[in-house]
Specification:
The structure is a single chain. The chain is of the alpha+beta class and 74 residues long. It contains three helices and four strands, in the order ββααββα. A four-stranded antiparallel β-sheet has the order 1-2-4-3. A hairpin with a 2-residue loop joins strand 1 and strand 2. The longest helix has 10 residues.
């Protein structure tokens, strides 16, 4: 069964935690943190957790669908 992740909305902006992003992308939380550290995914530490906006997630995923297919071999 698929887990539905809704994130947290604050003033109309949806935020996701590192763990939520990891579940959505089927990768480990450490990989998400690595992407943030490398600057590939924008995240912001707010208090203790690192939060990623829906907009940042979309921008991160955008190159994957740039007309070359998922693997980029076209």
């Amino acid at each position: 069964m698929k887990e539905i992740i809704q994130g947290t909305k604050i003033q109309g902006v949806t935020f996701y935690t590192v763990q939520e992003i990891a579940v959505m992308l089927r990768i480990t939380p450490q990989t998400v943190r690595t992407y943030i550290k490398e600057g590939r995914l924008k995240g912001k530490r707010i208090g203790r957790p690192i939060l990623i906006t829906e907009e940042s997630l979309s921008a991160f995923l955008e190159p994957s669908y740039s007309g070359k297919g998922i693997g980029g071999d076209a």
